[in-house]
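Table S5 (text form). Sequence records supplied for joint modeling of the two-component complex.
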Amino acid sequence: MPGRRPDVSDRRQYVSCFVDDLMVGIKVEDVQEVTSGSELTHVPLAPAVVSGLLNLRGHIVTTIDLRRCLHLGSRPADQPPVHIILRTDDGCVGLLVDQVGDVLEVDDEDFEAPPRTLRGSLRDLITGAYKLDGGLLLALDTERALAFSSGEQT
Amino acid sequence: MSGLDTIAKEFVVESRENLDQLEIDLMALEGNPSSRETLASIFRTVHTIKGAAGFMRLAKLEALAHSGESLLSQLRDGVLVINPVITSALLALADCTRLMLTHVEQTGTEGDTDCAAIVERLARVAEGGGQTRSRQPDGAPPPEAEAVGQPNANEGNRPVQAGSNVRVSVEHLDKLMNLVGELVLARNEIIQFSAIQESSALLNTSQRLNSITTLLQEGIMKTRMQPIDKVWNKLPRVVRDAAQYCGKRVRLEMEGKDTELDRTLIEAIQDPLTHVIRNSIDHGLETWEKRVAAGKSAEGHIRLRAFHEGGQVTIEVSDDGGGIDVAAIRRKALERGLITPEQSRGMSEPEAMNLVFLAGLSTAEKVTSISGRGVGMDVVKTNIEQIGGKVSIQSQAGVGTTLRMRIPLTLAIMTALVVTSGDESYAIPQVNVLELVHVDAKDVRAKIEMMCDAAVYRLRGELLPLVWLDGQFTSGASDTTRARLVGRLTEWDALNIVVLQADELKFGLIVDDVSDTQEIVVKPLGRHVRGIPIFAGATIMGNGRVALILDVPGLAVRSSVLSEAREKSAVRSDVSLEADPEPTQALLLFSGPDDTRMAIPLSRITRLEEFSRASVERVGGRDVVQYFGDTLSLTDIATLMPGARARNRASLTTASESFQVLVYSKDGRQLGVVVDRILDTVEERLVNLRPTTRQGVTGSVVINGRVTEILDLDTLCADVVAPPVSEDAHAGAEA
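The corresponding C-alpha cell record, covering 889 residues in total, follows.
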C-alpha cells in the first residue's frame, strides 16, 4: 500500500508510547532517542511533573513524567523507567513513559480533533487522535506539554 | 566561492590579532624608543597586512598599509625617532584598518571608508611633519636595517612565533570536555569491573587508564584558561587615549599579568575594566598642575593588580588621585532623588561612597566624552555581579581610590564540597563554605540550643543559626516547628554542620553526610527547574549521577536566615557591599509586658531555656530553678523595666505549663530573664535608632513593621546581678 502512495505529504510518522492504558504518539522529528534504565536525580521544589534529572552522555536532561502531566496514577514501582528524549529549542527534555512501541506511519485522513466531551489535561495536551485499527493514537502536542509543565501556561 | 570566504574570514581574524599586537608594540615603543626588536615587530605587522590586503585586492587598505610602512621605514632607518605625533598617526592607521576589516567581514569589500586623510597624515609625518627630527644619540650607531629585518614578501603571513599556537574553537573545547566527562564515567566502570576480575594485568591497565584520564581531564580544563593579559594588553592604548583626551599624564603599572581566568570571564571583564580605567583617569586623577600643587608627582599612576586568592581572582584598579568626594556624591544623589535626606543622614561614609554604583549618578563636574555621563559604575557592578563577582571601592581623600573586583576563576569549573542528604548528593560551592563542624551524638542535646523555633549552635561564642538541608526541600511553609526540631535532635546520632557564608551572614547547614571537595563541572538547568532559587545548576558526579549545586544565598533567603525584606529594601541594601561599615546585628525579638516588642542583641545572651512551672522553687524570696547543678534566679522582664511597678507576675504564675527564659550572664553570675514570648531572631543594622531617655533602653527602631525597643541588659540587670538586693528580690516576688 505505501508503495502506491508516492505523495507522502499527508502521511506522518509517530513514535508510539504507552502510559496507563493510553497510546500516545510523538512526532518522529521531535524525538532524538529513547533511553531506559538511567538513574534519576530527584529535584526538590520542582514542579510536580518533573520526575528528575538524567545524565545523557554528559548532558543534564530534565525529565517530565507524562503520567503526571495527564493526571494519571503513578507508575507501577516494578516497571523500569523508559525515557523518550525530545529535542526542543532549549536543549533536550526527557519524557517518562511506561513503555515505548513502534514507529507508526499514519494518514492524515484518519485524524480527528478531540471530541467535545474530552475535558481536562488530556484535551490541552493533544492535538487530536488517529483512528488506527488497534485503537486510538493520541497525537501529543509536545511543545504545549512541555510548556505546561514548566508553568508557562496562560 | 566558499574557499574565498574562508580566506577572507581568516584574513579578518588574523589581521585583528595583528592590530592588537601592533598596539601593544606601539605602546612598548613609546616607553622604550630605542628597541629595535619592537620596531621590527611593528614593521612586520604592517607589512603583513599590506601583503594580505594586496592578495585580497583591497586596494585602499593596501595603500593605507603602504603609507604606514613608509613612515615606519623612516623610523627604522633612524631618520625619525618615535614621538607622540607619530604614535598617534600609527594608531589612527590601526583604527582605520579595523573599520575596513569590519566592512570586509560583513560585505566582503572594503567599503567606502575614507582613509585618504590618514594616508596623507602618515605621509606628512613621514616627511618630518612630526616636528622632532631624529637626533642621533651621541656615540650610538645609527639604527640599522639588520635588526629590523627586511621581511620577504613571499615569506608567508605569520612570521612571529608561528607554529607554537593553534586556533581552536571554544565549541570544540566544550565538546572535548564533555567527552572527557564520559571517559571518566567509563573509567570508573572499568575500575569497578577490574576489581572483581582478579586479573593483575587488567588491574594494572585500569590503573594506568585512571591516571591518564585524570591528567587528560586536567589538561582539557586548562585549555579554557587564559592569562588576564589577554584583556590587559588592550589597556595601555585605552590609558593613552584617555590621558591624551583629558590632558593628563598617566603611567600604567600592571602586576600579575599571568593570572589565569576562564576565557568566558576574560571576555566578560573587558568592558567593565576599560570603563573603570577611563573613570580613574578622567575623575580620579587630578590635572598635573593640581598634583604638583599637592606635592605629588606630575604623572598620575594607575596600578592594575591581579592575583588568585581563595579560589577567586582579585583584580584591583588603584589610582593615586584625589579620592572620592563623598560629600559631593551625597549631594548629587540627593539632587537626583536617588536617596532621601533621612537616608543620607543615616548613611556612613563608606556607605555613601558605594552610592557611586547607583544608576544615574556621576560626580564629574563636567561631562566629558569618555566618562561622566552617569552611566557606567552601575553597569560595572551589574556586569561583575552577573559573572558571580563582587565589586568594592575604597578611597581616601587626597591619596587615591582602589576599586576591587573579585570574580570566580571560572564559570564552568568550581571547587565544591559534596554533601549528602537523603539519597542524593549535593554540591556546595567552596567559596561559600567557611568550615565544617561535627557534633558527636552525646553532645547534640547540650550543644544545639533552641531559641523558640530556631535551633542554634554556639560557634566560638557566637550563635550560629542552623538550617536543615532536607527541611528546605519541602515546599510550603518551612517545616521547622519546635516539636519537630526537638524530636529530630534526639533522634539523630551526630550532626554534620557545614558553616556557610551568604553575604555577611553565617549560618550552619545540617546535612546527613559530608563527602569531600571536588572540582565539578557546572552545567545549567533546563527551563523546568531553572527557577528554583536554592539551586544554582547541576553537575555530574564520578558515578555518573546528576547532583544539584546549592545556591547558598538562595538557601539563606529561603530559610529566612537572610530576611527577604533586607534583600528587597531600597537603596540601603542595594549599596551595601563588602566593606559594610555598619554590620548587621543579630537581635532576639520577644514580646515584653503588655505585648510590647523588645529586642536584645543576640550576642548578649548565653542561652535560651524553657522551664516548666513545676520546676520553679522559692528560695529566699526569689524564684529559682535548678540549672546545670546550680541555681538560676529568675526575674520577670517587666520588673526590670524602668518605671515598672510591681505588677502581676503574669508569665510565672498565670502562664501555661512552661515559660521562656533568656539566660544572661555577667562576671560569672547568671540570671534568668523571664519573657512573655520569644518571637524571632532578626538581622538589623542599628542605625537610625530613635534615642530614648529611659534607662536601660538603647533606643527604638522599627522591626518587621513594629516599633521595637532595644534593651541594654547590662544596665537593666546591673542591680539584679549584683549581690542580692532586697527590693529586686521583692520585685520578683508574688503580688
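Note: The interface with chain A takes residues 178-179, 181-182, 423-424, 472-475, 523-529, 532, 534-535, 538, 540, 544-548 of chain B (CB under 8 Å).
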